[in-house]
Design a protein that fits this description.
Elements (H helix, E strand, L loop, with lengths): L2 H5 L27 H7 L4 H19 L5 E6 L6 H18 L3 E6 L26 H17 L4 E4 L3 H7 L5 E4 L7 H8 L5 E4 L7 H10 L3 E6 L5 E6 L5 E5 L10 H13 L6 E4 L12 H13 L5 E7 L26 H16 L1
Parallel strand pairs: 1-2, 1-10, 2-3, 3-4, 4-5, 5-8, 8-9, 9-10
Antiparallel strand pairs: 6-7
The structure holds erythose-4-phosphate and phosphoenolpyruvate (PEP).
């Protein structure tokens, strides 16, 4: 049996010359577990499901302004080593109660990475970091890790990049992002319209807010789209629309957009479109000029704007790992250092979060 026959349902397992199936010579397929199989193997308990429902409500309340705290999505640019990610999560879980009167901390658990051209695409795609592309293991490892983070009491956030992957993980999430490279994609907007969790759309890499506001309007609508069901079968998916989307300012090719004038302009743009002004500032990426050590200054500015009355600012995102900086992917990796974008180390992160909470209290 050849590789194509092995993935076909029995009904179409006829000799290949008898059916009109064209297989591109540049494409091979291998079966993966279905979302239902993985969810059964790594189930979400009733208790954790209840916790995640409550955490989604808590995130919604902050985004809606019913809860005056600041949402903080914080964690590694990407997770490449489950051990250091859990080490980080334990530290974050220990800090959370200390600042919870002012900050709602959410663990950034990014397991898929959008690349400008090519590069390592994340734990889901290549968990062994060697190009072997063991995606079955990547899905299982990512789900296990998110379950463990949830068990620590942390709300979990990720970027949803490949819509097929969402079905394996979305029950574990309290917040998700659609990245700068995919906010304009109809397929991602359709996916978000069927997610029962708050989702931030980032502005484009060129700095344009229009694609994110269009995305919010599209995702708020009901859609019918192509997808798969939990059994992995092709399916017509009908979605109800997601009212819990918001704008994430991440800067663009022209520079940052976290300053007071840019935030006010973004707010006015949302209001003009009749969209509730809910804004998150990504302190990293083009807002920090990709220098992770500039994130504290961005956070400080956002806190100052909040204190000056800019109440459209509902949250921030920080790229942070155990240690400052980044390293290239090699066989001799330093523990707790990002292998994608540079991160602020834990010591600095903990200090600025405590300081932000103190300033907001004051
Ligand atoms: O956050 C991560 C990166 O900015 C994003 O994945 C793009 O990375 P790249 O430009 O290095 O491919
Ligand atoms: C890729 C990311 O961000 P952006 O889409 O803003 O580049 C990210 O947050 O990891």
């Amino acid at each position: 049996m050849n590789s194509l026959q092995s993935v076909l349902p029995t009904a179409v397992q006829q000799p290949l010359h008898a059916i009109a199936l064209e297989v591109a010579p540049s494409r091979r397929t291998q079966p993966l577990p279905t979302p239902a199989e993985l969810r059964q193997r790594l189930p979400l308990s009733h208790e954790l499901a209840r916790q995640i429902r409550a955490q989604r409500e808590a995130v919604r309340a902050v985004l809606d302004g019913e809860d005056a705290r600041l949402l903080v999505v914080v964690g590694p640019c990407s997770i490449h080593d489950p051990e250091s990610a859990l080490d980080y999560a334990r530290r974050l879980a220990a800090l959370a109660p200390e600042v919870s009167d002012q900050l709602l901390l959410v663990m950034r658990a990014y397991v898929e990475k959008p690349r400008t051209t090519v590069g390592w695409k994340g734990l889901v795609y290549d968990p062994h970091l060697d190009g072997s592309g063991d995606m079955a293991e990547g899905l299982a490892l990512s789900r296990r890790l998110m379950l463990e983070m949830a068990e620590l009491g942390l709300p979990v956030a990720t970027e949803l990049l490949q819509p097929l992957v969402a079905g394996y993980l979305d029950d574990l999430l309290s917040w998700a992002a659609i990245g700068a490279r995919t906010s304009e994609s109809q397929i991602h907007r359709e996916m978000v319209s069927g997610l029962d969790l708050p989702v931030g759309f980032k502005n484009g890499t060129d700095g344009s807010l229009g694609i994110a506001t269009d995305a919010m309007r599209s995702a708020a609508h009901a859609h019918q789209h192509f997808g798969i069901d939990v059994q992995g079968r092709p399916a017509l998916v009908e979605t109800a629309g997601n009212a819990d989307t918001h704008l994430v300012l991440r800067g663009g090719h022209q520079g940052p957009n976290f300053d007071a004038a840019s935030v006010q302009a973004a707010r006015a743009g949302l209001e003009k479109l009749g969209i509730a002004p809910r804004i998150l500032v990504d302190c990293s990426h083009a807002n920090s000029g990709k220098d992770p050590l500039r994130q504290p200054a961005v956070l400080e500015d956002v806190i100052a704007q909040r204190l000056a009355g800019q109440d459209a600012l509902r949250g921030v995102m920080l790229e942070s790992h155990l240690f400052d900086g980044a390293q290239s992917l090699s066989c001799d990796l330093r523990y707790g250092v990002s292998i994608t974008d540079g991160c602020l180390g834990w010591a600095g992160t903990e200090a600025i979060l405590r300081e932000a909470a103190a300033r907001l209290r004051g």
